[in-house]
């Protein structure tokens, strides 16, 4: 699914500032193309630890895109029952693959070691 993602790609601030107007226009055009063609829905999931800049990223996307066609939903911290279910699902997946699993679950997230 992420074959084209280049996670190590970085540019300096000066280069970004130079390219920013073109990037903003391309993102907005892509949004309108998706709306017009209606071939598939798009989901952008932004997750991270507290203070990682999730809100800033959402605000930037709303600034760059047409917010009339963007729906933002925040999710509360998972309950203990939800965390337990996630752990159980992870255990099942790992067992299917014949590996071992250590899980540290906390209200702010989960750490999995396979």
Distance N terminus to C terminus?
A: 22 Å
> Globular, elongated, flat, extended or rod-shaped: what is the shape?
extended
Q: Given the structure, what is the number of helices?
A: 3
How many distinct beta strands?
A: 2
Helix content estimate: 40-55%
Gyration radius, rounded: 19 Å
Write down the domain tally. Answer: 2
For the largest sheet, list the strands in their spatial order.
Answer: 1-2
Tell me about this structure:
With 114 residues, the chain is mainly alpha-helical. Helix content is 46%, strand content 9%. The chain contains 3 helices and 2 strands. It has a two-stranded antiparallel sheet with strand order 1-2. The chain is extended. The relative contact order is 0.08.
Topology:
Blueprint: H1 13-37, H2 54-64, H3 80-96, E1 102-106, E2 109-113
Antiparallel strand pairs: 1-2
Short description:
With 114 residues, the protein is mostly helical. The protein folds into 2 domains: 13-69, no CATH class; 80-113, no CATH class. It has 3 helices and 2 strands, in the order αααββ.
């Amino acid at each position: 699914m992420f074959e084209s993602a280049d996670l190590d790609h970085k540019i300096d601030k000066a280069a970004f500032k130079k390219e920013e107007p073109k990037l903003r226009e391309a993102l907005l055009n892509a949004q309108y193309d998706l709306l017009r063609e209606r071939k598939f829905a798009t989901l952008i999931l932004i997750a991270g630890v507290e203070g990682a800049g999730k809100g800033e990223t959402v605000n930037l996307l709303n600034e760059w895109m047409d917010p009339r066609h963007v729906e933002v939903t925040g999710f509360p911290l998972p309950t203990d029952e939800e965390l337990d279910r996630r752990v159980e699902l992870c255990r099942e997946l790992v067992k299917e693959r014949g590996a071992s699993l250590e899980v540290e679950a906390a209200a702010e997230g989960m750490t999995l070691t396979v």
